[in-house]
Amino acid sequence: MVTKFIDNPEDKQDLYNLLQSFMLYTEYAPWRWMTDTDIFAVEIPGEKELYYACVMGCEGEMFGMAIYQGLKGLKYYQRQLETEDPEEVAMIEEHGPVLLLTLGDRGELNNKERQLYKELGFSFRGHNAWPVFRSFKPGFYPWILTPAEAHAASIVLQHAIAVAEHCREHQNKWHENGSDHIPLCKVLPGSASENFTLEWMPFPEINDEEIRFAFDYDTAISAVSHLPQIEGEGWEIDWCYSPGPVQEKKGDYPFYPILGIIASRESGLILNFKLSTRDEFNAASLLIQTMVKFNKRPESLIFKTELKARSVLDLAHLLEIDFYLAQKLLLEECQASLLEQL
Prior knowledge:
Layout: H1 9-28, E1 40-43, E2 51-56, E3 64-69, H2 70-82, H3 86-89, E4 98-104, H4 111-119, E5 130-136, H5 147-169, H6 171-177, E6 181-187, E7 196-202, H7 217-224, E8 234-241, E9 258-264, E10 270-276, H8 283-294, E11 300-303, H9 306-311, H10 313-318, E12 322-325, H11 332-341
Parallel strand pairs: 1-6, 8-11, 11-12
Antiparallel strand pairs: 1-2, 2-3, 3-4, 4-5, 6-7, 8-9, 9-10
C-alpha cells in the first residue's frame, strides 16, 4: 500500500479545508458537554459507507475527533468501549480502522507536514496546539491521511459543530435514544456546512467478531488426513504483531509483520514459525505445513483466546483434532525472544 504526501493543488485544498474545519471545531470545543459515547453518523454523497464520529476530550487528556469508516470502523469503536482486555481489542485487527484528528505537539508532525501547514498559511505554537491527523488501519503503522481520507474528514468536521449543538440543545433525547439509535447527518450535494438534514437511525446490527482464513480445505485434508494422529500430542498455536513497523520502500505504508508460532505443549519446543504481512498470514495453512513437516497430526490444539481458536475450528473438526484454551502458553517465552530480534 502506497500513500504519498499531498502534493497537488486539489489535494492541498482538501488539507486546507480540513485544517480550517478542525480549528473551528476545536475553538467550539464540544467536549465540554459531549463524551466519546455520543457517537453520530455522517452520510457523504458519493460514499458507499457511513462515517461514524465521536468527540474526544471530555476527560481532559486528548482533544479532537475520532472518525470510523463503515461497519468495520463501528465494530472497532464498539470493541474499544466494551472490552477491558487490551489483547482482545488488538487480537488481529490491532488498531482501526479509524481517523484520529487531535491537538498535539510540534514533534508529532514530520518536516513535510509542518512545511505544508506553513505553505497553506497556518501557524501554530505551543503545547497541544498543532493539528495531528493520523489514519489507523489494521496491521499498519499510524500514517498520514490519504487525500480521500482528508476530504471525507473535512466534510465530517464541517457538520460536527451543528451536530454537537443539537446534542447540547437535546441532551435528554440523546441519552434516551443513545442505546439503540444514533443521529444521522445526511450531507446534501454541495457539502456546505449548513446543507444537511438530521434524523435518528437505528444502531446498525454488527455481527460477532470472527477471524476467518481463506483456505482450500479439500486440498488440505487430502494432504494430512492420512497422517497418524499421536495420542497425547498437543500443539500450542499463537500469533501476534511485531512491536516495530516495517517499510519495504520509501512511500510505502509502514506495516507490522505478524509472527505465527506453533510449539509442542509437552516440551515447549518451537515446531514451526512464520513471519508475514497481515494479509498473507494464515493460521490454518501454518498448521497444515507443520503436520506435513513432522508427518503427524496432533490430538489437540491449545490457544490462549477463544477468538483465535474459532479461526481454525472448521479445520480442527475435519481432522478430528480437539482444541483447548490455556491462560498461559509455553511458547510465550520463545515468542518474546523472537520478537526482540525483529
